[in-house]
TrEMBL record:
It comes from Davidia involucrata (Dove tree). InterPro entries: Atg7, Atg7_N, Atg7_N_1, Atg7_N_2, ThiF/MoeB/HesA, ThiF_NAD_FAD-bd, Ubiquitin-activating_enz. Residues 10-327 form the Ubiquitin-like modifier-activating enzyme Atg7 N-terminal domain. One of its GO terms (cellular component) is phagophore assembly site. This is Ubiquitin-like modifier-activating enzyme ATG7. It is found in: Cytoplasm; Preautophagosomal structure.
Length: 709
C-alpha cells in the first residue's frame, strides 16, 4: 500500500517506441516509388497493448502495415484490422525529409504543438468519447538515407500539461484497493472486454462497481450511467508501463480530457495490466489524484502547453538505425541497383516505366567487346532478363577490351565467352536472370558440308526459337554475314532489333524496321512473347501508311558473303579505338529504351533533332532516330534514315515469304549459295542492268564548268 498523505506530483512513465524492420523497408519503397521529393506529412498507425509482464513495458510499435499501401501493393499488404487484442491502433503522423540537414532543421516544438492541438480539438469536439485512441496521437520525424540504408528518426508522444500538475494521493495494486468480490468481478469484466472483438482495442474506458460488488466496464460516452449513489467509479486505460509506482504515459492526456470534460477534483484511475493474456489485478494499479481545472481550459481557444519528445538514453537526441548489415546481400543489391532508376522518376523522368524494362527479354548475339558493354548497360537500365549467344572462347587479348572477362577466364584454353559472361553478370548483380548459349550462327558464304547439315540446321532452328522467345535482339557479332540469319528471323517474327557495328574509328547503331508481313498478318496469341502487357499493346499497324524503316542489309546491292577469308591478322581481329565500343553500346541500349517507351514502339518513324514534326517534345526520352553514325576521328555524330528495300537480301517480303514457305531448306540454300539471295531479290538483274548502262562524256566540256561535290 502506497499512501501519499501530503501528496506528491503525479509522475508518468514515458512511452517507448519500437520500429520493426519491415516499416523501414516499406518507407523506402514508398519514398522511391510514390513520394519522390514530396515531404508532405503521411498518416501512419502505431500499435500498443497493455503491459503483459511484470518486468517489461510494452512499446508503441510501427510495422510494415503502419504505412499506407502503395497502389501496386493494395492486395499484398495486409490492411489494419480491428479487434486484435495485442495491437491497439493509435493514429500518428510522419514527416520524412529529403535531406539530413532538413531533418535536423525541423521545428520540433512547432510540430509537437500542432499534434497536441489535434488532441485538444478532439477533446472539445467529442471525438475522444467516440474514438478514445486519439488521446494517444503520436508524431514521427525521419530521414531515410537510401544509399546507405541508414534511418534517422525521432518520436514524440504529445502530452497536454496540467497547470498546476496533478497531485498523487494514493497508488497501489488494484487487488489491494478492491475487495475480493470486487476484484473477481472486475477481472471477469476486464477479460470479457478484452475478449470482445468490438472492444478489445478500445484503450480508454470507465469502470463502474456497484454496491453489490458487481463490476461493469463502459465506453467513455456512457459516463452518466456510472453516476449512481453507492457506486465506485474508476477511469480505466490500457497501461503499457510495468513500473509499480508510476502510471503509463497515456494517463496524461486522459487526465487532461477529464479536466476539460468534467468538474472532478479527485480522480480515481485504473492502470490496466495483464499477465499471459488475462487481467492481472496484482500488476494493475489503482490510483487517486487531485486535479484542478487550469484557468481557461473550458475555452476551446485556450491551448495548453505540451511535452513529449522521446529521450534517447536520457538525452534529447534523435535515434539512428542501419539495416545494411542485416539485409540479404542480394536484396541489398537489388535495392541499390534500382535506386538510380527510381530517383529518375522523382523529377527528371516521371514517366519512366521500370516494369516494362525489367520484363523485357533481351537476346545478345555476340559476347565480345560490344556484347559485354551492352549487357552491362542493360543491367544499369533495369533490364533483368539477358541471354548471351557466342561460340568463341575467352582469349588472352580479350579482358582488357571486353569488360566481363578476367585473366582467370583465359586459362586452360579459355572458357566459353557465353558462360563466362553470365557468371560475371551474376557476380556483378546476383538478381539478373542471365543465360549463356554456346552456339555458332550459320552464315551465307560459309558452305556447309553434307555431313554437318543436320547440326547446322539444328542451330538454325535453335536460333529461331531463341529469337521467338525474346522481345528484343541485339546484333553484336564481328562479321557482316553472321547478322544475316538473325535479321531474317527477326523480320519474320517482327522483333525489336538493334544493330551495333564498329570500324576502326567509326560506328553504326541502328534499329531495324518492322517486319514486311507485320501489316498483312495479324499476330496470334501464341506468337506474342511473354513480355508485359504494355509491350503487347504496341500497335501492329502503320496507321500513316509510311514506308518501313530499313534493316542492316537494305542498302546492299550484293548478298552477304564470307568476309573472313584471305584476311591478315589486323583484318581478322576487331581493331578499333578502345573508346568506340562503350559509346556504340550505350547508344544501342538507349535506342531500345526509347523504343519501349515510344507509343508506336517498333513502328515509330525516324526522328531528327532538327525536325519540326519529330514529336520529340511529347517523348520524355527525346527523339528516336533510325540510324546513328559516329566518328571518333572527327568527334562527330549524325542521325540518318534509310527506308526498306524491296530487294533486301534479309528483310524484304520476297525473302521472308520464301522463308515462311520453305523454312530451313531455304536457309540452307542461302548459306551454301549466296548468289541465290541475289537471284530471288532481283539484285542479279539490277547489277546486269547497271553494268550495261553507258555514260556519254562530253570531252569538249570546259574545265570551268566542273562543279566540286
Amino acid at each position: 500500500m502506497a499512501e501519499h498523505e501530503n501528496g506528491s506530483v503525479l509522475q508518468f512513465a514515458p512511452f517507448q517506441s519500437a520500429v520493426d524492420e519491415g516499416f523501414w523497408h516499406r518507407l523506402s519503397s514508398l519514398k522511391l516509388n510514390e513520394l519522390g521529393i514530396d515531404e508532405s506529412p503521411i498518416p501512419i498507425t502505431g500499435f500498443y497493448a497493455p503491459c503483459s509482464h511484470s518486468q517489461l513495458s510494452n512499446h508503441l510499435t510501427l510495422l510494415a502495415e503502419s504505412l499506407p499501401p502503395e497502389p501496386s501493393e493494395q492486395s499484398s499488404i495486409p490492411t489494419i484490422s480491428r479487434g486484435n487484442r495485442n495491437r491497439c491502433p493509435v493514429p500518428g503522423i510522419l514527416y520524412n525529409t529529403n535531406t539530413l540537414e532538413s531533418f535536423h532543421a525541423l521545428d520540433r516544438q512547432r510540430l509537437l504543438k500542432a499534434e497536441a492541438k489535434k488532441i485538444w480539438e478532439d477533446i472539445h469536439s467529442g471525438k475522444v468519447e467516440e474514438e478514445s485512441a486519439v488521446l494517444s496521437r503520436f508524431l514521427l520525424i525521419s530521414f531515410a538515407d537510401l544509399k546507405k540504408w541508414i534511418f534517422h528518426y525521432w518520436f514524440a508522444f504529445p502530452a497536454l500539461m496540467l497547470d498546476p500538475p496533478a497531485t498523487l494521493i494514493d497508488l497501489r495494486p488494484a487487488s489491494q484497493w478492491l475487495s475480493l468480490e470486487e476484484a473477481e468481478s472486475l477481472s471477469a469484466a476486464c477479460n470479457e472486454w478484452r475478449n470482445s472483438h468490438s472492444t478489445t482495442d478500445v484503450p480508454f474506458f470507465l469502470v463502474d462497481i456497484a454496491s453489490n460488488s458487481h463490476a461493469t466496464i463502459r465506453h467513455l460516452k456512457e459516463w452518466e450511467a456510472c453516476q449512481r449513489d453507492g457506486h465506485k467509479f474508476l477511469f480505466g486505460f490500457y497501461d503499457p508501463c510495468h513500473l509499480p509506482n508510476n502510471p503509463g504515459w497515456p494517463l496524461r492526456n486522459f487526465l487532461a480530457f477529464i479536466c476539460s470534460r468534467w468538474d472532478f477534483e479527485k480522480v480515481r484511475f485504473l492502470c490496466y495490466r495483464e499477465n499471459r493474456g488475462f487481467a492481472d489485478l496484482g500488476l494493475s494499479l489503482v490510483g487517486e489524484a487531485l486535479i484542478s481545472v487550469p484557468q481557461g481550459w473550458k475555452d476551446h481557444q485556450h491551448m495548453p502547453n505540451a511535452v513529449g519528445w522521446e529521450l534517447n538514453r536520457g538525452k534529447k537526441v534523435s535515434r539512428c538505425i542501419s539495416l545494411a548489415k542485416s539485409m540479404d546481400p542480394t536484396r541489398l543489391a537489388i535495392s541499390a541497383a534500382d535506386l538510380n532508376l527510381k530517383l529518375m522518376r522523382w523529377r527528371a523522368l516521371p514517366s519512366l516505366n521500370l516494369n516494362i524494362l525489367s520484363a523485357t527479354k533481351c537476346l545478345l548475339l555476340g559476347a565480345g567487346t560490344l556484347g559485354c558493354q551492352v549487357a552491362r548497360m542493360l543491367m544499369a537500365w533495369g533490364f533483368r532478363k539477358i541471354t548471351l549467344l557466342d561460340s568463341g572462347k575467352v582469349a588472352m587479348s580479350n579482358p582488357l577490351r571486353q569488360s566481363l572477362y578476367t585473366l582467370d577466364d583465359c586459362l586452360n584454353g579459355g572458357q566459353f565467352k557465353a558462360t563466362a559472361a553470365v557468371k560475371s553478370l551474376k557476380r556483378i548483380f546476383p538478381a539478373v536472370e542471365a543465360e549463356g548459349i554456346v552456339m555458332a550462327i550459320p552464315m551465307p558464304g560459309h558452305p556447309v558440308p553434307s555431313q554437318e547439315e543436320n547440326s547446322v540446321l539444328e542451330d538454325c532452328r535453335r536460333l529461331h526459337d531463341l529469337i521467338d522467345s525474346h522481345d528484343a535482339v541485339f546484333l553484336l557479332t564481328d562479321t557482316r554475314e553472321s547478322r544475316w540469319l538473325p535479321t531474317l528471323l527477326c523480320a519474320n517474327a517482327n522483333k525489336i532489333t538493334i544493330t551495333a557495328a564498329l570500324g576502326f574509328d567509326s560506328f553504326l547503331v541502328m534499329r531495324h524496321g518492322a517486319g514486311p508481313l507485320s501489316i498483312i498478318h495479324e499476330y496470334k496469341a501464341e506468337t506474342v512473347n511473354a513480355l508485359s502487357a504494355e509491350v503487347e499493346n504496341f500497335s501492329l499497324t502503320d496507321g500513316d501508311g509510311r514506308q518501313r524503316l530499313g534493316c542492316y542489309f537494305c542498302n546492299d546491292v550484293v548478298a552477304p558473303v564470307d568476309s573472313t577469308a584471305n584476311r591478315t591478322l589486323d583484318q581478322q581481329c576487331t581493331v578499333t579505338r578502345p573508346g568506340l565500343a562503350p559509346i556504340a553500346s550505350a547508344l544501342a541500349v538507349e535506342h531500345l529504351v526509347g523504343i519501349l517507351h515510344h507509343p508506336h514502339g517498333i513502328f515509330a518513324k525516324a526522328e531528327f533533332a532538327d525536325s519540326t514534326n519529330s514529336g520529340s517534345t511529347e517523348q520524355p526520352l527525346g527523339i528516336l532516330p533510325h540510324q546513328i553514325r559516329g566518328s571518333l576521328s572527327q568527334f562527330s555524330q549524325m542521325t540518318l534514315v534509310g527506308h526498306s528495300s524491296n530487294s533486301c537480301t534479309a528483310c524484304c517480303s520476297t525473302v521472308v515469304s520464301e522463308y515462311q514457305k520453305r523454312g530451313m531448306e531455304f536457309v540452307l540454300q542461302a548459306i551454301n549459295h549466296p548468289t541465290y539471295l541475289e537471284d530471288i531479290t532481283g539484285l542479279t538483274e539490277l547489277m546486269k542492268s547497271a553494268s550495261s548502262f553507258k555514260l556519254d562524256w562530253d570531252n569538249e566540256m570546259d574545265n570551268d564548268d566542273c562543279v566540286e561535290i
